[in-house]
Amino acid sequence: MGEQNRMRTALSAGDPAVARAWALRETLPPTLPADEIIALNAPKADLHTRRTYAYRDWKFEVPPGVFLPGETSRMIHDRILDGTIPVSGRSYAAMGAGLGVEAVVAGLRGATEIHAMDVDPESVRAMTEAYERIVGDRPGTLFHPWVSDLFDSVPDGARFDVVTFNPPAVRETVSEDPAVVRNVCVGIGIARRFFDQVVHRDLLADDGEVYFIVSNTSEMRNIVGYAIESGFVPEVIHRQLWDTDNVQTFLFKLRRIAAV
Ligand SMILES: C[S@@+](CC[C@H](N)C(=O)[O-])C[C@H]1O[C@@H](n2cnc3c(N)ncnc32)[C@H](O)[C@@H]1O
What we know:
The protein is α/β, with parallel strands linked by helices. Helices cover 35% and strands 25% of the residues. The chain has nine helices and nine strands. The strands form two sheets. The protein has a seven-stranded mixed β-sheet with strand order 5-4-3-6-7-9-8, with helices on both faces. Helix 2 runs antiparallel to helix 9. The chain is globular, with a radius of gyration of 18 Å. The relative contact order is 0.17. The protein binds S-adenosylmethionine (SAM). S-adenosylmethionine binds next to strand 4 and helix 7. The site of S-adenosylmethionine has 20 residues, from strand 4 and helix 7.
């Protein structure tokens, strides 16, 4: 734990919201066994081909190497569309936006500003094309696509009311293909760096919210623990069980301790 986080944890140790946060963490499932995670995340054979994707009435071209959205992605997309994740009239950061469906939906919902980041230039090209085609110029909505390692390219001083992240945090390295690793299994480090940047660069508005998806194929307990140590209080917005396996996927809303 960093010095700043240690101090923050010590200062908030008696805070009931923090006690509840740690109690919530205790209820989360442990990470699945390695062999189960590897079997569940067999790389898709068509990743390096040109694909198409449809969300509601919108069509997307998916270039080689770009992540094809799945059920987990749609947990965020659907909630931006129906307003459960409220972006209208707010500034929004879509981290690891991939194909950019969340940026498109946020544009249609009237976010004031959308910063959409991905480390993969091809993903940023695809999201920019989709945004310009589907949303286009819209009074009161600015779109900023960035090729960016997490928030590195985002200008200093930016602050967001809403941040979403469906991180490639699967614990086991399921392939040697760098595109698979980037899309799926970077591990817990990407989550730690994400929370570090949000805190150290003060990227979240005082009453802002981070929506973060993670399953028990990742180190969910350690990720949530790290977020609490970093000054966030998690709330479970949705828990998804699947018929076919033992995966449990959680959508968390995280706010700063001071905002709870
Ligand atoms: C699981 S996919 C999610 C894509 C999209 N948000 C969705 O839900 O369909 C993870 C995305 O994170 C991107 N990514 C991986 N490492 C990153 C980093 N260090 N900074 C920014 N984006 C990153 C990948 O390129 C990929 O597009």
